[in-house]
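Minutes, methods subgroup
Present: GH (chair), OT, SY

1. OT presented the first of two proteins processed in the latest run. Sequence and structure tokens recorded below as shown on screen.
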Amino acid sequence: MTVARILAKKGREVATTQPHRTLREVANLLTARNIGAVVIADVQGRVLGILSERDIVRAVATRGGDGLNDAVSIYMTTRVITASEEDTVLATVEKMTAGRFRHLPVVKDGQLAGIVSIGDAVKFRLEEMEREQSAMREYIASV
């Protein structure tokens, strides 16, 4: 199964913001949407960075409540690892595990095309394994 199939099923909507926004604004966005990360993008849809709940916690631990008034650009991850729609779910999980992050922006032709979380990847991998197991049971029963 590929990332494209995950996006086809879950949708391509991605929460984005601009680098000048404050951590407080992004924390409110994460809370309102019940998500764990937001992609920082320019007006053309190019990925500039990513900011997660973990980044906000680090900022508050370092600067206290005043950190919430800082620009996202100070704390965002700028070396963003991305996926393509052709990547397999297994390759996606391996990238997230190796990098110790839970959200992977999907880029197509240099533009943001979606986002996959570790939860999305695990869910689709489990569904795939269930289908394979069911097909195997049906095959064995028919022999």
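2. SY then presented the second protein from the same run.
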Amino acid sequence: MSHHRDRIREAVATDPGIHFNALTRRLDLAPGQVQYHLKRLDDADEVVEEQLYGRTHYYTPEYGVWEREAIAVLRRETARDVVFCLLAGDHDTPAAVADELAIARSTLEWHLDHLVEQDLLVKERDANNRVTLVLTKPEETAAMLNEIEPSVPERFVDRFTRLVDGFLYDASRSS
């Protein structure tokens, strides 16, 4: 087995859901080298490839479909913050979560759509048609959060979005 292949397998095992560009940056290898070795690892069933939301993520085979898709979503810092907010139990309505995280409702809804799509939460409606956010698998989700951490570029994008949201949020409140 090649030294590069061992390094790639170890990086995938250490950082489940890592995407292709982060893998090439971390290992300081050419994209073609990483592609070649990932193909060999995939053929040998040593890594699993999952394409989600415009990125290709890599996992070791012990992760099931739900876990792989959940990890891909939870690598986004804002989605993680939404889940942390719900796990804390202090807020359970979209308006309360958006206020707590100081993000625009549209940004929150974008993340909620992905969290619902990946079966991490559901939107329940009460008799007055008010929406409550409920985690579908709180214990499993909490355990998964301990395994992953968003990469620096993922954090940068999320924080930039939140910065812009903060400006828009403040502007809408002062109007």
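Chair's summary of item 2: The first strand starts at residue 18 and ends at 19.
Next meeting: continue with the remaining queue.
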